[in-house]
Design a protein that fits this description.
alpha+beta; five-stranded mixed beta barrel; about 40% helix
């Protein structure tokens, strides 16, 4: 009988399967939305890095006005402040080493922290990494490291000059300045093709901003489809067994 068959429908399983599908579809949709956001971010980065560089003072004016200047190319003229360079641990192509950062006294925008680039560990104290003397002209990319520290990133060690994430405020103090004397922006020097000198500027590597959200979305949607097929098959078999039992009982 149909009424008896409906009573034997595995409602608990159907409910659990339905909730599972809602969760999986929601995760897939969220990944699609994240992909749209990530593509907009990458487009913003590429546009900023492809545009002609602006003066650092112009970029800072925009920043103080509330505009986003991350990944904007800038040029600046001035001299490096004498003193020890800050070492930020950052491997490059499987090679252990450090990025050397130093305070740069720009002519028109005050002090700013400059990431000069990468040096292998064995060269971190070498004379080849010494700061250039006199006035120099630089071109780099601005970055605001809002989320510089990951969940497994070690604590910075200012006393031993070992840094593992960009904490510009603490780096300002370690460089002998007062907190707030420098903006929380870092100028990452752009690489000069064929330049063999150390430190070696790395610029901004977009490989550090992965965009795999489409694959993740396909995985979640695929799991939702698989769950739907399994649930349909299970319910169909359950109803088939119920109908068989009802027919047998009517004989």
């Amino acid at each position: 009988m149909k009424t008896l068959t409906l009573r034997r429908l595995p409602l608990g399983f159907v409910t659990a399967a339905s909730l599972g599908m809602v969760v999986l579809l929601s995760l897939g949709t969220w990944q699609i939305l994240r992909r749209v956001e990530k593509e907009a971010l990458l487009a913003h980065i590429r546009a900023g890095m492809a545009a002609p560089p602006v003066a650092l003072s112009v970029a800072l004016d925009r920043w103080h006005a509330g505009k986003d200047v991350s990944y904007l190319r800038v040029h600046l003229t001035g001299r490096y402040r004498p003193g020890p360079q800050l070492r930020l641990f950052r491997p490059l192509n499987g090679m252990a080493g450090w990025h050397l950062a130093a305070v740069f006294e720009s002519d028109d925008a005050g002090d700013v922290l400059v990431d000069r680039g990468f040096v292998p560990d064995e060269l971190k104290d070498s004379a080849v990494t010494a700061l250039p003397a006199g006035r120099v002209k630089l071109t780099g990319v601005l970055r605001l490291h809002r989320r510089a520290r990951g969940p497994f990133t070690p604590d910075n060690k200012p006393v031993s000059n070992e840094w593992f994430w960009w904490d510009v405020r603490a780096m300002t103090v370690a460089a002998g300045l007062a907190p707030g004397d420098m903006p929380k922006l870092v100028v990452h020097l752009q690489p000069a093709p064929g330049d063999p000198r150390w430190p070696r500027a790395t610029g901004v590597d977009l490989s550090g901003i992965p965009n795999h959200h489409l694959q993740y979305a396909a995985t979640w949607f695929g799991l939702a489809l698989t769950l739907a097929i399994m649930a349909f098959s299970f319910v169909r078999k359950s109803l088939g067994r119920s109908d068989g039992d009802d027919n047998h009982g009517d004989q």
